[in-house]
């Protein structure tokens, strides 16, 4: 290529600089700013911003909502990882390996919730659970289990699992597609050989399918964990706002309430840092747990 | 025989799950045509007659119409801006070796791991300072920037498949690097661009929390925020039919969009993007 060094650098800057500048302003700065704000007592109004060192963090340790919120966050993580992985693995295997004619139909339908807004999903399910007009209670009534009917989202024990169900409902399609991609790339001859050797379908699943799509399984689990810790508060905020009491509060919804409803921006920022630390630690630990030698046949 | 039976057994969970996915949507759709009395009478019954009054009311009385237009605006502008920022950078990172390219790529990728909640408070005050709160152009820009790393990630994997010889031949013919990028490489990664843009557009259309924080006037609301507001009002006024109609207005465009482009989504998921 005939071009001067100067031209080359000009082209490189054209490609990289504008993007990097907006990235710094709207992504890097806010994240560093979040760290910085967490050392201040700040109501957001005017210039009253007082440096208080680690006081926000000390307050975090003594805040009785925080442990409950962390526990609820992990409740969502566990229920979503197990619920989504078991169902989507089952569906992925069924749709790729059992030669079901109408497989594309299921593939398209199961993905529907993934394209819907979390707000829409939250509102829709709020009314599915509604004690007056909802379908859950009316279904229970119809099959004679009227005594089980309850205001699901207003119940101290049932509110949290009731939010976890739409979270799983909305997650299946995406991970099913991911796993299907992994399964279709496994060579057919492996299964044929296993068949000749007399391996049952169950053995084939555990000895061939699972080890060979382990990378996809691992990616999916990590992705579910990250999105759950960083995002399940949207559903919480829409469906219950953390209530009843603090029964469904998670860190993200608590941050929103403290910062944008009570105007404690410094404290909100400290909760943000806590979310960051928790999700990074969880992912690092998870990487260790899920570590497994790559299998090739 | 056993195979046929087991295939039948497998269909049962598939059918049950289809029902669980589709039934709430049908219920929502039917509810949109019902009067309040009908909704309270039975959640299962069909409406007496087909009336579109709920849709009209949601669209104009509860400003779902203007929210629809606002969402369309931020979705289109956000998607285009995101491409404009991501295509040149993805090309430079994939094809032009330079000092620090690894570090830059890893910076972009690592930022995807960081919870965006952390940045919302400073972002809010940044926009406040520059008088850009309540501004749909600013919101589009922020959407675009928030999806730059993801878009770069997808485009790089598609650009890796473009044969280098094409670029070399074009350079020998005297084409400038700008020409090579926009006239040769960009058209060749069209399917990557489409995949990334579909996924970006769907998340911008559905975004709720940043819009909630960064928009203030009702006339500027995007669909997510307007729907949440409509829900609150509907609870006071028991306007359930209108609420269901609003949900339908928010969901139906995405379902149509998805049905048209679902092949690309599946392709992007299973081939290039995530390995």
From TrEMBL, chain A:
Entry GO CC: plasma membrane
Family assignment from sequence similarity: Belongs to the binding-protein-dependent transport system permease family.
Compartments where located: Cell membrane
The protein's name: Sugar ABC transporter permease
Pfam families in the record: BPD_transp_1
Keyword hit for Nucleus: no
Keywords: Cell membrane, Membrane, Transmembrane, Transmembrane helix, Transport
Transmembrane segments: 9-32, 74-96, 108-128, 158-179, 221-247, 267-290
PANTHER family per UniProt: ABC TRANSPORTER PERMEASE PROTEIN, INNER MEMBRANE ABC TRANSPORTER PERMEASE PROTEIN YCJO
InterPro entries: ABC_transporter_permease (IPR051393), MetI-like (IPR000515), MetI-like_sf (IPR035906)
Membrane topology qualifier: Multi-pass membrane protein
UniProt GO BP: transmembrane transport
ABC transmembrane type-1 domain span: 70-286
